[in-house]
């Protein structure tokens, strides 16, 4: 699985997703990749907020999303529609497994969890099929704005929303209803 987008560039989403997948016993390799080639680490506010969540992201270094990352991923998550669009532009065939975090939580909850005999990719295809046709991926309400440059309170709010939605995503991937 790959998490992409600005919030993953400051790897809060990736760290939270890895934790929630582990909490639900889902074996997942979560990698963070951004839509730009920034060669810096997590922001101080990201590190502080993740410490408050019991996670250490202090050694994180950013990297740019590559087509190979998208190819290898069962699931590609983005924070904004722009990030999702960029991932799909790199690999159009990945549209059925590329979602906004909030979109996957919302649609997956409506559809129901992955069944015991269903692969992650098959469940994601079912979720993708539930999207309205001929519309952009996700809705504005599904987006999580980038907190970079904002006060730490905004990072805390962002982390709270990510944790809520990623807890839902992990449970659905594990085959559990909420």
Helix-strand layout with pairing:
Blueprint: E1 2-4, H1 6-9, H2 12-23, E2 31-33, H3 44-52, H4 67-72, E3 76-78, H5 81-90, E4 98-100, H6 101-111, H7 120-129, H8 152-173
Parallel strand pairs: 1-2, 1-3, 3-4
Structural commentary:
Helices cover 47% and strands 7% of the residues. The relative contact order is 0.20. Helix 5 links the parallel strand 3 and strand 4 (98-100). The protein has helices at residues 6-9, 12-23, 44-52, 67-72, 81-90, 101-111, 120-129, 152-173; strands at 2-4, 31-33, 76-78, 98-100. The chain has one domain (2-173): Response regulator (Rossmann fold), CATH 3.40.50.2300. It has 8 helices and 4 strands, in the order βααβααβαβααα. By secondary structure, the chain is of the alpha/beta class. The two termini are 22 Å apart.
Attribute tags:
178 residues; Rossmann fold; disordered N terminus; alpha/beta
Question: Can you tell me the CATH superfamily?
Answer: Response regulator
Helical content (DSSP H or I, runs of 4+): 40-55%
C-alpha geometry: globular
Q: Which topology does CATH recognise?
A: Rossmann fold
Query: What is the CATH class designation?
Result: Alpha Beta
* Count of separate structural domains: 1
Mean pLDDT: 87
The N- to C-terminal Cα distance equals 22 Å
Uncertain runs are 1-10
**How many beta-strand runs?**
4
Q: Which CATH architecture would you pick?
A: 3-Layer(aba) Sandwich
Order of helices and strands: EHHEHHEHEHHH
- How would you characterize the largest beta sheet? 4 strands, parallel
Strand content: 5-15%
If strands are numbered along the chain, what order do they take across the biggest sheet?
2-1-3-4
């Amino acid at each position: 699985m790959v998490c992409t987008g600005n919030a993953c560039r400051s790897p809060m989403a990736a760290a939270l997703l890895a934790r929630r997948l582990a909490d639900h016993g889902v074996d997942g390799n979560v990698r963070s990749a951004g839509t730009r080639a920034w060669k810096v680490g997590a922001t101080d506010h990201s590190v502080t907020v993740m410490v408050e969540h019991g996670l250490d992201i202090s050694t994180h270094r950013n990297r740019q999303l590559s087509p190979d990352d998208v190819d290898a991923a069962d699931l590609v998550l983005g924070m904004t529609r722009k990030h999702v669009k960029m991932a799909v532009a790199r690999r159009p065939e990945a549209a059925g497994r590329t979602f906004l975090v909030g979109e996957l939580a919302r649609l997956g909850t409506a559809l129901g969890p992955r069944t015991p005999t269903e692969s992650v990719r098959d469940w994601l295809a079912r979720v993708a099929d539930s999207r309205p046709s001929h519309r952009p991926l996700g809705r504005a309400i599904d987006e999580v704005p980038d907190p970079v440059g904002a006060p730490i309170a905004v990072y805390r709010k962002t982390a709270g929303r990510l944790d809520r939605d990623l807890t839902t995503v992990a449970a659905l991937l594990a085959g559990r209803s909420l």
